[in-house]
Predict the 3D structure of the following.
Amino acid sequence: MAQVTLRQLVKKYDETPAVRGIDLDIPDKEFVVLVGPSGCGKTTTLRMIAGLEDITGGDVLIGGNVVNDVPPKDRDIAMVFQNYALYPHMSVYENMSFGLRLKKVPKEEIARRVENAAQILDIGKLLDRKPKQLSGGQRQRVAMGRAIVRDPKVFLFDEPLSNLDAKLRVQMRTEIKKVHQKVRTTTVYVTHDQVEAMTLADRVVVMNGGLIEQVGAPNDLYHSPATKFVAGFIGSPAMNFLPCRLEEAAGGLRVRLTETLGFPVPQERSARYRPHLGKARLLFGLRPEHIIEQRAHLEPGQHPFEVELEVTEPMGMETLVYFMLDGTEVCGRVNPNAGARDGGRMKLVADLSNMHLIDDESGKVL
Amino acid sequence: MAAVAETGSPRAAVKAGSMRNDRRRALVWSYVFLFLFVIFFLTPPIYMFITSLKSSAEVGAVTNPWWVYHPTLENYISLLTSPQYLTFFRNSAVVSLVVVVITMIISTLAAFSLARMKFWGSTTLATGVFLTYLIPETLLFIPLFKIFAFVHDTFGISLINHWWVLIIIYPTLTVPFATWIMIGYFASIPKELDEAALIDGAGYFQMLTKIFIPVALPGIIAAMIFAFTVSWADFLYPMAFTTSADQMVLPAGIVTTLIKGDVFNWGQIMGASLLGALPPLLIYAFLMDYYIAGLTAGATKG
């Protein structure tokens, strides 16, 4: 039983701040993913939880106890590293049991725990091998096995899938999720891959510039981002951002993108957006999947427009189309049979019920 | 060189098989130079071997120096039955083995702390360790003499003319370089390995004994071979610090006891030197692969 709490956590390297005062509560058994671009402080935060990095300010609590000055081995954590960090001269069994042997756990108990972990990870046949005789995916499993046998309060994962090829990464992602469902240990997972974050996490913590941008369930972050950064970071291809103006129109508000193109704002958002009428530096945000080909019937909130496509990217199940609006590139996702081709004209619809309005000055989603 | 120059020539129309010709030419030249090298370096020991099979009379006689007309093992027999020569051998063996042990203990601990436990001045210290290796022993033996004299005057302990004094002196030659080899080797071990060990509950000492030493074994063996070779073959210090025959190690002993005034007992000198060269030779032969892996590991491991 262990919750992890960060209180005003700060890390400075000399005078350069890497983490600038973050607060986070991770309840027992939760799977939390820290995600963000490189240099955002996510790995530093994880290493501070592990005790591998001194804390400049604030507190780290594990299971309600402040562990700022507790050495890593006494924090009852286990960590999985990006490059596996398996001991090259030890067999898989020895690698997994190393921590327990140091703790002088009885031999039978060690054997039982290693076998149990090996079964969970399906590596029972590899126990006598050396790490160099294993494939990348197998090494990653062993690294996870080494963490599981210790039965820690908290699992820490530092970009564990970055060294694997794309196919294996997807497979191991599922594997990690299954393992968490079986062992149910509080987990903090660091990645720069937002897909990994979305698929694995109970809650995602988006970090940027040493601060937390937003914390929330994957779908909440996706559909209701709090800031422009989160809106742009979560989702692939990224959300389209277009400079816009809000203006009064017959029967409500209008968001004007170019001299000739404007869309009516859905009624239910008018009240929320009205205070920003006439404000400079507003951005209109719309995800590519909300710009699709025009069909026979318009759904509520959909508004047609016609563009000249620059590039099309057939992905199989969909085709990505790129076009310019007033000098800004915009991406849409259309049906592969909709007839999109490079340089061709196409009738598209924008689904305004999923639009976002962003104050570009503060970076906040309005 | 010729092969390289030929390969580099801009012949636009490359004929089929020219790669193979280039390779063959390169190989021929490699063998030529290898052959010259082998002759150059094997001639002295072969000459020693031939001489060691001759009697003193034959060495002195005007005959073909490269041929043995009356081969005899008398030089070897008298050496191996001479208590004096066996004493040199024993002294050498004890000194070298103890020096290897002392060197490895000091330099493993030093290299581990310099490579991994970042502390104030550790980088400067690491460079300093290497710089001390660059000071030749010819510059050091007089100051060492002065220090020994001081120790004698102050504490009444005589350090001159004891074989075991070499055990104190040799590490000044072996520790810096051995430390340097191992700093490079330890530094090439990924940092995550120590962090994983830290989380697994290992202290620094366990990290060293259970992770670093086994992983860096090739480097450690290279350092051991180096320490052994240096202490086995050093000539200047035993000549300077030991004087009586029973306190001498091989290199000094051979020269002082087998050359009497202007009488050179060539056959025995050669035989004794060859026998003395055997232990390092055997060690190299068995551990050569490790030695090379150790010397080059720091450079190639990512």
